[in-house]
Structures are given as structure tokens and as C-alpha cells.
Amino acid sequence: MQIITTVEMVIIAVTFISLIAYRLFSRKLSTPALKHEFSMRYLLWPAITLVVVDVGESLTYNGTRAFTENVPHHNFGTPLDAALPLIPFFIIFYLMAYLVILFAPFYLSWVGNIWLVQRYLASVVVLFVISSIIYLTLPNDVPHAWTPEQYAQHTGPFDRLLEFMYDSDAASNGLPSLHNAHIWLPFFLIVFSMAKGRQRLLRALPVAILGVLISLSTLFCKEHYLADVFFSIALVALIAWCATHFGKRPARVHSELKRAA
């Protein structure tokens, strides 16, 4: 039931974003064919992608727990992880990741084309399959910094957000970190699909900045270990490279559609 409710929320958000984009830009297009291509690029494929991401995330992250709940779990924490401070303020960047995930297919459509969004869709499916296999065969935990009994000792506004996250997010399935994977996957798709130059730098840099902040937030909020972060980044880099180097690339997007977007 929770999966259905979440999917409905995602569909509503996607619908509003797509309609706004269509209203803003479609009037600039001169032919029905271009309007159809614009709708496919900014409505249909992003909508399909986000629904797959949402359902896949729930099944991969939550669904695998049903099979590993009563088996021994590994812990990949190190002394360096223990030395990292808990900084509740970073919960802002941790929560920001959900907005990045929501807008990722639209951003990829804008900087690339339908082909790039399709590569993103294929990549997240592969990511979910690999993550599910690891969660089932190598279940692992990331204990939270506070237990519910300790919440009363922390009363700041960011403490409350962190406590909400701890209550909402179980401590299992830390490696790979889907939080980190979802943020860095668009970055590597942009880097591997575009030629070197100023344009690639300008389009990948904002994603990299957000990626660094969000990855740090997973560490400073004690939601993940260093091993989770580095393994997840390496995993999506490999997936993105394969996704962009195999399969025929489409012809260049019509210049009028490119100007409108």
C-alpha cells in the first residue's frame, strides 16, 4: 500500500512539472511533429523513469529486508568512520537528494535528449538488480547515531529532522548506498555521453557539487559508511560507462526543439 501511495505522489509531481514545461516551451514549436517529440522528451520518458525509480527503490531497499531480517548482518564501519563527527545540519543536504532524484530525468532531457533519459532508465534498473543481489547475499547494517530513547537529549531543529529520518529509514542495506548512487549516476551519464569541453563542464559541475554535499551528508548524518559511499560511486560509474558506450546513439536533435528546450 505504501508503494502505491508513493507512486501516486511521484506521478502527481511529474505531471505538474511536465505540464509547466510544456506550457512554457511548446508554443515555440512550429509543427505537430516537434510538439510530439517535445512531449516524449519532457513528459512521457521522465514520467516512466520516475515511476520505475520509485517502485524499484521500494522493492530493492524495503523488499529485500523481508528475506534478510533474521540472518546475520555485516558491518563495514572503520575507525575513520567512527572518527567522523555527527553534524545534524547536513540532514538538509541528505533530504535534498530526494529533490535531485525527482528532477534528474528532466535535467538529463534538457542537457541531452531522449536517448540519455533512456540510458538513465536502463542504468537504474541494472543498479536495482545488482543492489538487490548484494542486499540478499551480503546483508549489512549502518547503526544510527541515536536510539529513540536518546531523542529527548537533542532538541535543535536539525536534530528533529535527523530523528525523523532515523525513524523513517531502517539501519540495514547500507552497501551499496542508493542515496549516493542516485545522485552520482546522472553525473557520470553526462560525463560519459558528452564530448570534453566547456559545455560538459558547465552541465556536470552543478551535479558534482550536489553530489559531494549529499555524499558528505550520508557520512555526517551517520546514515552510511565510507565503504558504502565509495563502492556506490564506483558502481554507478561502471554502469554509466556501459550504458553510454553500448547501443546506437540517436541522430542530433532538431535545432528548433533544441532552442525551445
Distance between the termini: 37 Å
How many domains, as an integer? 1
Biggest sheet, spatial arrangement of strands: 1-2
Measured by DSSP, the beta-strand proportion falls in under 5%
What is the count of DSSP helices, taking H or I runs of 4+ residues? 11
Broad shape: globular
Quaternary state of the chains: single chain
Extended strand count: 2
For the report, how would you describe the main beta sheet? 2 strands, parallel
Give helix and strand order, one letter per element, not per position: HHHEHHHEHHHHH
The proportion of residues forming helix, as a percent range, comes to over 70%
Mean pLDDT: 85
Structural class: mainly alpha
Q: List the uncertain runs.
A: 252-257
Describe what you observe in this structure:
- The chain is mostly helical and 261 residues long.
- It has one domain (2-260).
- It is built from eleven helices and two strands.
- The protein has helices at residues 2-25, 32-63, 65-68, 79-83, 91-111, 114-137, 157-168, 178-193, 198-220, 226-245, 255-260; strands at 74-75, 140-141.
- A two-stranded parallel sheet has the order 1-2.
- The longest helix is centred in the first third of the chain and has 32 residues, at 32-63.
- It is globular, with a radius of gyration of 20 Å.
- The two termini are 37 Å apart.
- The model is unreliable at 252-257 (pLDDT under 50).
